[in-house]
Design a protein that fits this description.
Helix content: 25-40%
Number of helices: 14
Shape: globular
Strand content: 15-25%
Number of domains: 2
Order of helices and strands: EHHHEHEHEEEHEEEHHEHEEHEHEEHHHE
Number of strands: 16
Bound molecules: iron/sulfur cluster
CATH topology of the largest domain: Rossmann fold
Largest sheet: 8 strands, mixed
Structural class: alpha/beta
Amino acid sequence: MSKVYLLRRELREFEKEPKALVKFLEKTPLFSKIKPKDLVGIKIHFGEDKNKGYIKPWYIKNLIEKIKRIGAKPFLFDTNTLYRGKRTNAVSHFNLAFFEHNFKLLNIPVIIADGLKGKDYFEVDIEGKHFKRAKIASLVRDLDFMLVLSHLTGHVLFGFGAGIKNIAMGCACRAGKMEQHCETAPRVNHQVCILCKKCINTCLYQAISLKDEKIFIDQDKCTGCAQCISECPKGALKIVWSENYQPLQERMVEYAKAVLNSCPNHFFVNFSMFITKECDCISKEEVSLVKDLGILAGSDVLSLDKATVDLLNQQEKRDVFKEVHPDVEYKFQFEYAQKIGLGELNYRIEEVKL
Ligand code: SF4
Ligand code: SF4
């Protein structure tokens, strides 16, 4: 049975005492796991443009200082997005994180882990139902320690997102995200396409051609690398999102397993505060759905995510994410994660009082 640590706290209380995070984490095994000189990659979501729900730099300023005092070398990382937005390539992603969302406040590097255009990855063997190999951002391979900070939110495809989703999508390169999300090649919106042919020149697999004065994508040649989507100047190439929640969740869980296999030293912290209906990739300001629960932490991502959702539902006396995303059976991911050995379903809560 895994131990999940809990600090009950509302965001407005945390704002008055941000040192509470370090005091809480001192009661967990986190700091004993980090060694001097370790390169500590802090996996975080910097928030899409206009989003206000992401983990703010001030939440973790004291945590970064504490990791530095151990003698380790912390840095922040995330990967480029599959969809078009301000986080599609490393330059605009860095600018958004460092300058616009003010992560420069932390005085540590911000690194986009899958390179300039999301093409830098290595392959991890995985005995999954869907994948035999997962495409993980190159940087993950060389981490001494990975600290995963996740903001609990709802999600239109997965029902909710926290630690599992953060590492599965957030540590995959663009092609890795594509193969988790889709079963098919991008679709062309001919109404919008201006026939500039940039996509033809970008595709390394000769999957795109001009047929009858229209862009044509050969499904058999397409590998799902998603490069054409980010290159198209008109947004004419669309991701065909898979909506069948069961295989979608299975693919995400298999990727999460591949990430943990390649980075065995890790720890997770979930911020169950300012919980929104949609994830932090959404480019708009959202409202908080429910009362804040607090901060949860643990070494086992499965029990941590399950406990985070269970405790929120117990507090609210209803199934919060089922209510806002009724078509998604989000609990399926827990069962599948246990089946493939991602972690433990059973947990024991250790509530920390400061
Ligand atoms: S890059 Fe976009 S606009 Fe240009 S030809 Fe391809 S689909 Fe059309
Ligand atoms: S997704 Fe990749 S392989 Fe498929 S058409 Fe686009 S660029 Fe080519």
